[in-house]
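re: ur question from earlier - yeah i can do the single chain one, its not a big deal. heres the input i used so u can compare w yours
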Amino acid sequence: MRRLVIAALLVSIGAIAEEAAIVEEPAKAEVEDSGGHKDWPTLDEWSKGNKLNEGTLTAEFLLGYEYSDLDQVPPDTEAAQGLITRTRVNYQTANFEGFDFRIQAQYVGPISDHYRYTAGGNPNYDVIADPEAFRLHQAYLAYTGYDSRARIGPQEIILDNSRFIGNVGWRLNAQSFNAGSIKNESIENLKLYYAYADSINTILGDIDHARQYHMINGEYKLGESNQISGYAYLQRNDNSAANSKVDTYGLRAWGKNGKISHDAMLALQRDAYYGSLFGEFDINAVDVGAGIEYISGGQGDDQFQTLNGTAHKFNGWADQFLGTGAGLPGGLIDVYGQVSTVVIEKLKLVGVAHYFNTAETTPGGFDGAYGYEFDALAKYPVCKNFDVLAKIAYYVKEDNHIANFTNDETVFWLRGILRF
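and the output i got, formated as C-alpha cells:
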C-alpha cells in the first residue's frame, strides 16, 4: 500500500510539473517572438476584442441637378444640364494607444451628363466641373498625443476662411491634399499648424503632381470671441516657369462683439497683394452684411494668385473669377452685400449681390466694370439625416471691352443629401 501511495504522489507531482511547463513556456516564447510592447494585444486578442467594431462607419448619398447657361461667343454652346450622384463611405477607427485611421472613399457618377469639363465631357455643352471619378478622398493615419494631432495620407485641409487653402467642398469631387500635417496646442489659446503636401487630388478627379506646398499657420484666441492668425503658404509649381515659386504671407483677424461680426485679411505675394474686409450686423432674426475684396493685377509678379482655396465661396457662385487662382491682369475689386435669415422653423434663406470692377490697368488692357451678380440660396433640413437645398447665380456682364473675359451666365442647383 505504501508503495502505491508513493507512486501516486510521484505521478501527481510529475503531472503538475508538466502542466506548469505547458503554461509557462509558450508565454515566454510569445513575448520574445512578438518583439512588441508587453501591453499590446496579440492579433488573436484584437480579433476577440472586436477592436474594429469599435470604429464608426458612416455613409452619405448626394443627388444633384445643375443647369448652367453661359452666353459665350464663340463658340456658341448649349446650356449644360447634369443629374449627378455622389456616394461617400467613411470609416473611422477607434483610438488605440493614440493612433487612429480614417478612410473615406467616394464615387461621383453622372446619370445625365449633357455637359463638358476640362479635358473631357461633351464639347457641345457649357461647363459643369463634376466629371465621373472614384478615389480615396481621405485615407490618413493619425496620432494624438503631447497636445498635438498629426496626420499622414490624403486629407482635407481648410485653413483660415479657406481663401487660399481649402477643400472646394461645393464641387462633388472636392479637393484633398496628399500630405503630412501636425497641429499643436501646447500653449494656451495658441494653435500652431504645419503641413507639407506633395500633390493635390483635384475637383476634376485627377492628381496634380506639379504643385507642392509648405503650409504654416498660427492662430491665437483673444478673449472669448475674437481671434487673429498669421500664415505662410509656400507653393512650388512645376508646370509654370514664371510661377514656379509663389510664397504667400498674411494676417487675419475675425470675431464677434455683441451683434457685430467682422473678418479682415491681408496678404503679400512677391510684388502682389490682397485685402478683404467683411462686417455683419445681427438684426433680430436677420443678418445683414457687406464686404469688399481687393486682388491686385498687372503683369508678371504683380498678379496675386489665390492658390488652392475654396474659390466658389468668394466672388460670386457663378464662378466667373476662378482665374484668380493663376492671377488676373486687371486684378479684381469685389464689392458685395448679403442678407440671411431663418424662417419657418429651419428654412435658411441667403441673398447676395456683387459688383465687380478691375483693380489695375495694364497697357492696352481693360479698366472698368466686369459686371454684376445676384445669388440666392434656400436650404431646409427635412429630417435629422436628410437636407435639401436650391441655389441660383445670375451674372450680368457690364463692359463689352474685348479684354473683359466674363460673360452673362445663369446657374441653378438643386440637391438632396442623405446621411446615415
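Residues 74 and 140 are 45 Å apart (CA to CA). not sure if urs matches, ping me
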